[in-house]
Amino acid sequence: MRTDPSPARFRDLMLDDEPALEEVMACVFDVQGHEVRTYLALVDHPGSTVAELADVVDRDRSNVNRSLSTLREKHLAERERRLLDSGGHVYQYTATPVEEARELMHQTLDEWAAYVHDRIDEFGRET
């Protein structure tokens, strides 16, 4: 997985004296605010279905489903299939633990900073 912080958001983040967690996560993982809110709701409601989570975050199921897809791509959520007694199945979602998400943010930002440092070191050599 390669996740790069959004340069525009990073600039905004640097100008903010006290950025909120939502802003930091949105910048580092290059996700939308509603996706961060979905992650935080999932932290508080592990094992939720799309319908249950839609009620919690007060968004329609299709939007929550897209947010969950993005969170899964960014390794911030997992999906588990549960068989129903009446037949069929339902997917339940669980957030990546906050400690792991925090470490992932550090790793992502460190990798991005190293990339930027490499570009700075190349400055002036390209002539």
3D structure, described in words:
InterPro entries: ArsR-like_HTH, Tscrpt_reg_TrmB_N, WH-like_DNA-bd_sf, WH_DNA-bd_sf. This is TrmB family transcriptional regulator. Residues 28-98 form the Transcription regulator TrmB N-terminal domain. It comes from Salinirubellus salinus. This protein has 127 residues and is mainly alpha-helical. It has a single domain (7-122), classed as Arc Repressor Mutant, subunit A. The protein is 60% helix and 11% strand. The protein has 6 helices and 2 strands. It has helices at 7-15, 21-29, 33-44, 50-57, 61-73, 98-122; strands spanning 77-83, 89-95. A two-stranded antiparallel ribbon has the order 1-2. β1 and β2 form a beta hairpin. α2 (21-29) packs across α3 (33-44), α3 packs across α5 and α4 crosses α5. The chain is elongated, with a radius of gyration of 18 Å.
Provide keyphrases for this structure:
Arc Repressor Mutant, subunit A; 127 residues; 6 helices; elongated; two-stranded antiparallel sheet; mainly alpha
What's the layout of helices and strands?
Blueprint: H1 7-15, H2 21-29, H3 33-44, H4 50-57, H5 61-73, E1 77-83, E2 89-95, H6 98-122
Antiparallel strand pairs: 1-2
Helix pairs in contact: 1-2, 2-3, 3-5, 4-5
